[in-house]
């Protein structure tokens, strides 16, 4: 069912205000994770308002199930969660933790898709069984490209009226990804953006409490509905210098050591000489031992193109989900 664009936007705005003022619809004390109370309340209330037998809930980034399993009881059909459990899971326990919490809480409409989000989104039609997504929550990998791909790859699966909630929008590159998506997809509109002072892990006292009880690390809410024409964009900086630098970090000899190298700079900046020395030795060892697809042959301008073939492409094959035309490495 679709309604006039302004009416839909108003309904979503009302739900946001209710999430802020009235809070959670239900609480499950078994659940742990990285999210703010307002974010969880919003997901519950959006599920209550905008899912039905034909419109389900989907989230990228389940971790230990805090958002998925709080939202699922308010979802009127399936609640899908995609996670490859590649992060924040040193002991490899998160998947079984989510499954056992699901069972303990008697939640039987939540479906865990244990896959990389790109693979899962490309095969999503197999899971959805003809249903569309009414509420979509993006909380997976937060690099610029993944943020954008999470928005792009879901497009064929969104319901006529759909709401997208994007977490961790305090980050400058996450805000830019939303902005770039909106600039290239005028059929979506932004209805809400809100930020906290910093990532909750860098806050203390009242500021930390406000983030944990509120919008965690910042939030964007977008809508898609027939006739909508979005014009406002989230707050971003005009300078693109860091994004342009990405080309250089991709093409240096040791791209995977860039993070440790910048930690080395922090040690230097803070005068932490022992750490600096230890880290330098570790980096040195890694450079000697590294010999895999992420290590370049040259110091700079690595292209990794030596084994690529010349190919003519058969343009009669249109299906973007066809694995033959889009093989996975
Ligand atoms: C911030 S946590 C999600 C928090 C969660 N929504 C909660 O309620 O606590 C991000 C999650 O994204 C997952 N993730 C990161 N990269 C991924 C990828 N490429 N595909 C699927 N999941 C991924 C991580 O394994 C991690 O569990």
What general outline do the C-alpha atoms trace?
globular
Give the spatial strand order of the biggest sheet: 3-2-1-4-5-7-6
Mean pLDDT: 94
Total E-strand runs: 7
Tell me the domain tally: 2
CA-based gyration radius: 22 Å
CATH architectural grouping of the largest domain? 3-Layer(aba) Sandwich
CATH topology of the largest domain: Rossmann fold
Order of helices and strands: HHEHEHEHHEHEHEHEHHH
- Helix fraction bin: 40-55%
CATH superfamily of the largest domain: Vaccinia Virus protein VP39
Question: Number of helical segments?
Answer: 12
Largest sheet: 7 strands, mixed
**N/C terminus separation:** 40 Å
Give a quick set of tags describing it.
40% helix; globular; 12 helices; alpha/beta; Rossmann fold; single chain; 329 residues; seven-stranded mixed sheet; binds S-adenosylmethionine
List the helices and strands and how they pair.
Elements: H1 5-22, H2 37-50, E1 55-60, H3 66-71, E2 79-82, H4 94-104, E3 110-113, H5 117-122, H6 124-128, E4 132-138, H7 144-152, E5 158-167, H8 172-184, E6 188-194, H9 205-213, E7 219-224, H10 241-251, H11 258-270, H12 273-289
Parallel strand pairs: 1-2, 1-4, 2-3, 4-5
Antiparallel strand pairs: 5-7, 6-7
Helix pairs in contact: 1-2, 7-8, 11-12
Bound molecules: S-adenosylmethionine.
Residues 33-35, 61-63, 66-67, 82-88, 116-117, 139-141 line the site of S-adenosylmethionine.
């Amino acid at each position: 069912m679709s309604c006039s664009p302004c009416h839909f936007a108003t309904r979503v705005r009302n739900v946001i205000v209710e999430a802020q003022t009235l809070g959670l619809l239900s609480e499950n004390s078994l659940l742990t994770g990285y999210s703010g109370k307002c974010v969880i309340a919003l997901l519950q209330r959006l599920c209550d308002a905008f899912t039905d037998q034909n419109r389900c809930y989907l989230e990228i980034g389940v971790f230990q199930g805090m958002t998925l399993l709080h939202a699922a009881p308010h979802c009127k059909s399936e609640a899908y969660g995609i996670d490859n459990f590649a992060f924040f899971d040193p002991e490899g326990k998160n998947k079984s933790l989510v499954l056992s919490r699901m069972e303990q809480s008697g939640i039987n409409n939540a479906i865990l898709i244990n896959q990389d989000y790109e693979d899962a989104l490309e095969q999503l039609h197999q899971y959805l069984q003809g249903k569309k997504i009414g509420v979509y929550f993006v909380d997976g990998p937060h690099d610029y490209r993944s943020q954008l791909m999470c928005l792009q790859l879901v497009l064929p699966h969104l319901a006529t009226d759909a709401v997208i909630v994007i977490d961790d929008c305090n980050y400058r590159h996450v805000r830019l990804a939303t902005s770039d998506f909106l600039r290239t997809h005028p059929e979506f509109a932004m209805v809400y953006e809100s930020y906290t002072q910093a990532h909750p892990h860098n806050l203390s006292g009242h500021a930390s409490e406000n983030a944990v009880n509120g919008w965690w690390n910042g939030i964007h809410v977008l809508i898609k509905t027939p006739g909508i024409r979005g014009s406002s964009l989230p707050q971003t900086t005009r300078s693109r210098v860091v994004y342009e630098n990405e080309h250089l970090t991709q093409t240096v000899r040791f791209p995977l050591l860039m993070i440790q190298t910048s930690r080395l700079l922090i040690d230097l900046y803070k005068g932490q000489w022992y750490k600096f020395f230890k880290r330098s030795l570790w980096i040195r060892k890694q450079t000697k031992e590294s010999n895999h697809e992420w290590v370049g042959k040259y110091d700079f301008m690595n292209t990794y193109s030596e084994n690529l073939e010349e190919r003519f492409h058969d343009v009669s094959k249109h299906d973007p989900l066809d694995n033959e035309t889009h093989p996975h490495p």
